[in-house]
Amino acid sequence: MSNCHIFYKKDDIIILDKQKGYIMLNMTEVIDKLKDIIRESKLGSKVFDKDVAKALGIEPTTFATMKRRGSIPYPEILEFCAIKKISANWLFFDQAIDMLKEQTERFFQVRYFADIRASAGGGAEVFDENYEIISVDEKIMNNIVGFSGNTELEAIHVDGESMEPTLQDGSIVFVDRTQTDIKKDGIFIASTTAGLFIKRIRQRADGMIELISDNKAYSPEILSADEVTIVGKVVGNIESL
User: Fold this and answer.
1) Residues 6 or more apart whose Cβ sits within 8 Å of residue 136
2) 206-227 confidence digits (pLDDT tens)
């Protein structure tokens, strides 16, 4: 995405353009773009400033004053963009949608659960909504996880020694939730009644599920299939220092 940052201070919004070459459109140019959008829904009918004011939920007289002063109503326009699913970068900076898409696809979006531990030895917490989004350049992530086709991964910590030497206690693992087929070899995150486990998983002929550790000092855990939900497959990891 661009290096444009939006700062909120009470009811005002200031957009700071940090990358030279991205020229912000002025109020008249923005209004013209808004008119083009509104005109599409009015089947080509003529669109006036009052129509733009109505679409933004602003009194026409107030909107006229803002236009005269060159004061762009950012909060109202951003809400309009969200409702219409329009790129604010395109509206304010005339930035091509294809370029935005290309830039966005260069990054993996990783949901990092700093407080969650997938236990290699015993039960751990379940996933919750306490996470932060970390954008990581695709070249770095491809070196860590390879190319799985999914650019939205989750990252959690390993707790315990039962998956050593493959995974060290305290390591961070990257989880792909789209991969849940345990018939394919690999290490998985499993949610059980005892919490989260990170194990190799095998379903036996009798239907029971084995949670298998790489550390031979740990015996397999055996659970019924209805006690196990596969969260996703571990596609990469970063060792703890």
Assistant:
1) 107, 108, 110
2) 999 999 999 999 999 999 999 9
